[in-house]
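so my prof wants the structure for this chain in the tokens format not the other one, which i didnt know existed until like an hour ago. anyway here's the sequence
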Amino acid sequence: MDVLRRWSMGRKESKWFRMLNGGIPVFGQFGTNIYASDMVQNCINVIATEMSKLQPRHIKTRENEQTVPNGNINRLFRFGPNPLMTTSEFIEKKIWLLMMNYNAFIVPIFDSDYSTGIERRTYRALYPINPSRVEFLQDPTGELLIRFFFPSGVDFTFRYADVIHLRKKFSVNELMGGGADGQPDNAALLKVLQTNHALSQGLERAARINAAIQGILKVNTVLDDDGMRAERDRFVKLVESGENGILPMDLKGEYTSVKGDAKFIDKDTLSFLQQSILNWFSVSLPILTGEFTDDEYQAFYEKALEPLVIYFGQKYSKVLFTERELDVGNEIAWYQRDMNYLSTNSKINILKTMGEQGLLTDNQKLALLGYPPIPGGDRITQSLNYIDVKLINQYQMQNKSKAVTEDEK
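here's what i got, hopefully its the right format
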């Protein structure tokens, strides 16, 4: 039965799941908007872009030997998890949803076959969704359900075990990522962003005034309060419009030239604020600008990307496979082969080391350098300077016997 309809029947008999803290598990997907910041968007974008290079695969491990089955899951991952997205778009979208909401939901669409007595699933699509509200329920048997509400007024209910629920900063809330209320916990980042925004506005205003004011004109009449307010308003309008560089003042008529010397926020203060934002997402400035070294990218990968790669493998495997399928070695692996950040010298060193060990085909070597495959490129060559460890003793004993025989002669 289609998973979209499976848990729609008998929903009225369901009740809210009781959390350990006594709360009602109803959560909105709205957090304070930190994403108006260009730096925040750039940080998320660089993570999403890099993660979109991943190549997810269904693999099967038996006796330390891995194979890639030709099943429907690999077909979806290879050509597009759903009719609306490529695999890269699918990954990028779920990263944005996870970073924005601290929760991301992917709904697998599948058919179940029980003809053999055990469930066998045929997956037809994987959809990342962005609900406005979620509720956790329990059916009469104690099965945990999740209901998604959308702004259009439509809602759907699924078995929670059939939904891929990704959580960021999964801590105090029992079911959702983020803070205690299941919302993005951005309070600390918001303070930094607000300070950075205030300083940026100050810099803009200082630069504008510094460029606009050319001199001061003292007026030879004394103005009352209303007159001063009117002059102040006219002053602001003149400065902001940039139409005039002369400013009217009270008292005598005297013009004084003003030399621009605005004091701006020091570089260290701005760098500290920007670095605080970058640290929040584990993104360094060289990664953001694309001027990174191999070591800088490796640090970025290990800090920001690798935890997600490992997490995705565990989460997708747990949801997409039954316990029996997991027991016999099925899993989803997320390969980072196309995260090609290495310099030319590093690539040459890899080719030398792995090539001599016989770990790469000719086509894999060409791909590492950015060249297309060639006919017969599946050949593997290896240096003769290496020997199988199992043969070392035999090789040495033969040489020893040979040396003894030479001495006897």
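also thought this was worth mentioning. The first helix runs from residue 3 to 6.
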